[in-house]
Amino acid sequence: MLITLFFSLLVSSVVATDEDSALPRLTDTKAAEAFIDSAEVVVIGFVEGEESHGYQELVAAAKRVDSVPVAICTEKAVWADYSLSSDTITLFRKADNHQENLVLAKAKKVEADGLVNFITINEVRYVTEYDQVTAVGLFNSEVKTHLLLFANRGSKEYTELKERLGALAPEFTGKFLFVLINGAVKSNIRSLGYFGLKSQDLPRVGLYDSESDMKWLLPEGQISTERVREFCQSFLQGELKEVKQAGAEAKTEL
């Protein structure tokens, strides 16, 4: 009885119904804020109801993208808190404090496949693995500097380093996007070559500033939290501009 009462109080502003196909319904701003804070990336469908354009497609997309929590909000008073005035599917992410809006009235066509692509492309996390899909969201972000971890998936350091940098990334929210580049994937050979690296040289850490198209490597040695933190701070303080860049050739994308 006590457990049931506690749970009901905890979710008093978040309601899930059969009609919503188990998508939680956010009934006030406090519930929306809690939902947004619950994960690195979340999606909220700000729609008038289940008859709204795009509603059923969002439900279908949510079932296919289980790595991203999805909810709906029909309360227009809440919409205003996020500067929305019409039906909109919005992705919120912590890595760069970004709100990506898909205004349904402006969309020529709304399909589940398209919504899956919208979510996947914009699913930028504290540590985002680089590929052709995530590259779009990474380079469209207002944060133009990337801290890069080059590591071979399956190596003994891979998971440990990913977790270590994932714990560090929130310290640099809005300043850097932390990106993992798997050196064991052939399609990433070009990215490694841009930094003068080969798969056998990994793991290494680099930094790429897309605005200046400049790049640097953390000197070889232990990839500790403190060394990476100092590397990031050196860039922010302008010290890296006096350091020789990594690699030889110039290019504008990874």
CATH superfamily annotation of the largest domain: Glutaredoxin
Mean pLDDT: 89
How many distinct beta strands?
A: 11
In the CATH hierarchy, the architecture of the largest domain is 3-Layer(aba) Sandwich
Give the overall shape: elongated
Please characterize this protein's 3D structure.
With 254 residues, the chain is of the alpha/beta class. It folds into two domains: 25-122, Glutaredoxin; 127-242, Glutaredoxin, CATH 3.40.30.10. It has nine helices and eleven strands. Helix 3 crosses helix 5. The longest helix has 12 residues, at 225-236. It is elongated and about 55 Å long. Belongs to the protein disulfide isomerase family.
Core attributes:
Glutaredoxin, 254 residues, five-stranded mixed β-sheet, 2 domains, four-stranded mixed β-sheet, disordered N terminus, signal, protein disulfide isomerase activity, 21% strand, alpha/beta, Endoplasmic reticulum resident protein 27, disordered C terminus, 9 helices, Thioredoxin-like_sf
Short structural description:
The protein is α/β, with parallel strands linked by helices and 254 residues long. The protein has nine helices and eleven strands. InterPro entries: Thioredoxin-like_sf.
Fold topology:
Elements: H1 2-10, E1 14-16, E2 24-26, H2 29-36, E3 41-46, H3 55-64, E4 70-73, H4 76-81, E5 88-93, E6 98-103, H5 112-121, E7 127-129, H6 134-140, E8 145-151, H7 158-168, E9 177-182, H8 189-194, E10 204-209, E11 214-217, H9 225-236
